[in-house]
Structure formats: C-alpha cells, structure tokens
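Q: Could you fold this chain for me?
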Amino acid sequence: MIEHTTTPSPGARLRSLIASGQFVLAPGIYDGLTAALVESIGFPAAYVSGGAASVSVTGVPDLGLMTGSEMADHVNRLRAVTDLPLIVDIDTGYGNELNVRHTIDRMWRAGAAAVHIEDQQLPKRCGHLSGKSLAPLTDSVSRVRAAVIAAANTDMVVIARTDALAVEGRAAAIDRAHAFEDAGADMIFVEAPETIDDLQAIGSAVTVPLVVNVLSNSRTPLLSAQEYRDLGFALAIYPAVSIAAAAEAVQGALRQLHSTGLPPVDGSGPADLFEIVGLSNWLDWPGEHGLVPDAKTVR
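A: Sure. Below is the predicted structure, expressed as structure tokens.
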C-alpha cells in the first residue's frame, strides 16, 4: 500500500516565512547547479530571474524576448533539482488578462511559490536599464487582478511590481503600489529605488510586505539584509548574484585557456562537482533498497 504524506506547498512555505517576520534572502538561480548550491548553503528561497533566464536559456538580453512557455519549462527544470520556494519573474504576464491566467496556471503546475508581474509596456526591458515605459494604470491593475484571481485557489504568492519610479517619480510609484494593493496583490515590488530616502518612503507608505531588488553596480543602494529589513522590506531578491559570478569566472578561465593552452588548475575534480548535485545519494540509493549488493563499488 502506498502511503501519502502531506507536505506544505512551496507557496505555503514562502507565506509562512514572510508571516514569521524573518527577512527572506532569495539568491538568483539559472540552472540546476546554482539551484543545488543555493539550497545546500541554506538559503530559504530562490529567485528565478527573467534576465538571467534570458541570458542563460535563450542567449538574448532581457528585453521581453523570452516566452511564457520557455519560462515555464525553465521553472520545471529548476523545480526538479530543488525543494526551495521559487519566486518567478513573469514579466508583464505575457499578454492580456487571459494570458495572465494561463501563465499563473502553468507556473503553479511547474511548482512556483510566487510570481511577480510588472506594469511595463512592451517592448519591456530590465528594470535597472533606462528607456522604460509604463502600461496605463487601468491595464496594469487589471493584469494584477487577473493574476490574483487565477491564483486564488492556490497558495501562490502574487507580487505586483511597478517600474513607475524611474519613469514618473516616487509619488506615482507609490500610487501604483497602492492600486496594486487594492487589486489584491500579496506583496509589492517597487523597482529600482535610487536612494535611502526612496527606500524609506516606500517602506513607510506600503502596508503589504515589500520586495527589494538588489544588484551590484546598479541603481538601488547596496545595503545589508538587516538594513533593508529596518527600512520596511520583507524579502530581497538577488537576480545576478550567481550568473554574474559565473560569467566572470568562466570568462577568466576561457581567456587563460585561449592565451596559454592550459585550463586553470583548482582543487576540484569531477566527483566534487557531481557531489553538489547529489552524487552520493544516487550511488547509495540502489544499495539502500537492495537493488545491488554494494552500490559504492561503481564509484
């Protein structure tokens, strides 16, 4: 007889984290290796950035070129590797309200704990780049409301993002945040505050839990987790922390190989790399279940 155990969904676990008052750090992941690393180090959640996905999956910049289907497939692959709650960037929802409903359904089936939907007008771009434009407020509110309704029978957290600060200023961004609160968003994400004063004003004005986007060498002040928490934020996403480090390291290794004909020498071998994604578990599993006399002999 198969026994079924009930475990909280990823969305329920993320909601519990936020409700506990714990400041949640969610590093960006873009493949199975970074997902495994983030989980093994002990972070409580992970962030699936649209920008990192665009670069790593499709090899194009973050200009809204990646499709909803490509993103859902990406989330499916990451969910197979990690049990962490995944916070997923769904850009503008990939279309009108019906597209938003379809996207929420697909992301829930893929195992997303949360999504954030933004109010940019197509063609959209990374929130920390210049040249953004906003969709009309009524259209943006309608898409947020569609996401909230579509997620109503799930535990998925709906995060509403506004890019209004860079386009129309702080007051307009806070007005949009309030409109998204009224539309039922669980969390608010005001993109690219440029000063401590911006962060403080947003933290004081918005009543639902707040998300801050943390990028090195970009618009938002780089603060500690405790400082963001003291300013009124509940969750920080770090979209580029893994992909930027990887890009720099890989470029360095390739330049050395190209110039010297020799790869960099480090202390890691194939077994060390495979262990990050569960080598011992895979090799021990047959023996633990009596499938072979000694699974370790295949090492």
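A (continued): DSSP finds 13 helices and eight strands in the chain.
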